[in-house]
Fold this protein.
Amino acid sequence: MATTYPTTTDLSDHLTQIDGAPSSPSEDILAAAIEDGIETAERLTRRVFSSSGNSETRTYDGITGNIGKDRIVEIDDCYDLTAVSVDGNDLTEDTDYVLLPRRRRDGKPIEAIQFIGSTTPFKVGSLSVAATFGWETLPATIKKAILDIAAVSILKTNSAATGQVIQRKIGDRQIIYGVSQAQRSHTSEEIEEAAVLNLIKFQREPYA
């Protein structure tokens, strides 16, 4: 089953729960705001959560330079991994390689492959992985964060015409609040700050 991001319909429903939000933004405004929310989520987490729900094969470069003791190749987030091959030769899980992280809880995906046998990929494009890429389900926290950031994008557009501009930075997200008499910045600030902090909790960390 495919894993999808929130839609403009989801955002329209979400806006009804936020004080000061416009009651009926245009479809173009909703779409642009959702795009901002998704882009922010993928950038801050360094992940792509959406999935076609279908298996596909992707190729990756082998280990270059000093391979060290870990012999790890990072791959795109995925689940239901069915095959790993190096230079066309199929490998066996737990004999030739293990999947990382070893303990995957709460729907967390596979992120990397650690080679433990005699075979290690070295060449460009020598590693092939067959799996379903993305996340099996979109975490509720991520969905809400995307919708909150999209909603704030609309709120800021509404209030940008008047008032001073306040800027803050959380992670690499520059947060800008337009302050007006009708729209207090505190609402936007609190919503966006909470969303960004929740996204950072899902941030993918490198293995080396």
Notes: Strands lie at 56-60, 72-86, 89-90, 97-100, 110-115, 127-133, 165-170, 173-178. Residues 11 and 58 are 33 Å apart (CA to CA). Residues 161-170, 175-185 have pLDDT under 50 and may be disordered.
